[in-house]
Specification:
Blueprint: E1 2-3, E2 9-10, H1 12-29, H2 39-70, H3 84-108, H4 110-120, H5 135-152, H6 156-172, H7 181-187, H8 194-200, H9 205-208, H10 218-222, H11 231-236, H12 251-265, H13 270-277, H14 286-291, H15 306-320, H16 327-330
Antiparallel strand pairs: 1-2
Helix pairs in contact: 1-6, 2-5, 2-6, 3-4, 3-5, 3-6, 4-12, 13-15
Length: 349
């Protein structure tokens, strides 16, 4: 429970549970798509939601409030000294624009997408999808928004009001409910509706990379990232991602798959490859040296650093591309001990 002064006292956990309860009720009465009850899916989504909510609640709420009350603002705006309606309006608009930009980054930056894809991999969209986010994504999302709030010097009351609204909208936009067409047409001009955001969860990539708004659809309209769908697509189009296996729909799979994929793909980053290309030839085994013709031959042999050793191993794994049996041929046997446990652990001497 957070008290923001002037008698404003709000328990965000109660707000979230209340939104969940109302959302579950309305989507059972007026479902937009066939309502599928899967206990295992709800348990896995619920377990991940608890972890993500804990991170998001800590960093997205307490950290922001403590930061702005404990540090001097770095902005000439000092919104906390303005009338409350100005503070709330500017804070709301700037945070929505920041979240829109951050959401696009989650889709466009491969490293961030691996974590955000956990949210999109759900094969259905309902209230249980609302907080199906990887905990690391919650951290990545909270930190830049914290800096924005600090720069704005927003008051605690404005933050509490925005946070309450955001928790309710997170559930509302994922609710499997059909809004009457006449109301939907008017409502989506000012708010993100369940159908508006459901488009964002369709498996077709052109829909997945659209409709990024959290509460306001205006930025999608202005920056041309809005995609419309038909009533038939809303009811029958596939939801989710085709890249995730059944194991990655379990709680352990959802938690482990993103960092595992990030480690495996780390060597494909251009800056890492550039670093590998600057390593002396002795650093790679004969097999890797024959596949990497561009590495210059240097007479001065310098022992590689731990960072370079990690890069060598990652690049060798990437070069092989055919399985674990080829790795020892690419990495110097005398300098690397490895074992297979869905990734490689190398200790250099």
């Amino acid at each position: 429970m957070i008290e923001a002064g002037s008698g404003l006292l709000i328990d965000f956990t109660v707000v979230t549970l209340g939104a969940f309860t109302v959302g579950m009720f309305v989507e059972t009465l007026w479902p937009a798509r066939e309502y599928v009850i899967s206990i295992s899916r709800w348990l896995n989504n619920g377990g991940l939601a608890l972890l993500a909510y804990a991170c998001n609640h800590l960093l997205g709420t307490w950290l922001v409030v403590l930061l702005i009350t404990g540090l001097e603002p770095r902005s000439s705006l000092t919104l906390r000294n303005t009338p409350i309606w100005v503070d709330v309006t500017v804070t709301f608009f700037v945070l929505e624009l920041s979240r829109y930009a951050l959401h696009i980054a989650m889709h466009k930056v491969p490293f961030l997408w691996r974590f955000h894809a956990v949210h999109h991999a759900d094969n259905e969209v309902d209230v249980s999808t609302s907080y199906r986010h990887h905990p690391i994504e919650a951290i990545f999302s909270a930190l830049p928004l914290t800096v924005v709030v600090w720069m704005l010097a927003s008051g605690p009351q404005a933050l509490v009001i925005y946070r309450t609204w955001d928790l309710i909208m997170a559930v509302w936009t994922h609710t499997n409910v059909e809004v009457p067409s006449c109301l939907e047409c008017w409502l989506r001009r000012v708010l993100v509706t369940p159908a508006f955001h459901r488009t964002h969860h369709l498996a077709d990539r052109r829909f997945t990379d659209s409709n990024y708004g959290s509460s306001l659809p205006w930025f999608d309209y202005f920056f041309s990232t809005y995609q419309a769908t038909t009533a038939e697509q809303q009811k029958c189009a596939q939801i989710g991602l085709k890249t995730h296996t059944a194991n990655e729909q379990r709680l352990d799979g959802m938690l482990w798959a993103p960092p595992q994929a990030a480690i495996t793909r780390l060597a494909s980053i251009g800056t890492l490859n550039a670093l590998i290309d600057r390593l002396p030839p002795f650093a790679l085994g004969s097999g890797a040296r024959s596949m990497n013709k561009k590495i210059p031959v240097r007479r001065k042999h310098v022992a590689p650093t731990p960072t370079q050793n990690f890069c060598i191993s990652s690049r060798a794994i990437l070069i092989s591309g055919r399985g674990h049996d080829n790795i020892p041929d690419l990495i110097d046997q005398e300098r690397c001990q490895w074992r297979d446990s869905s990734q490689f652990f190398c200790s250099r001497w």
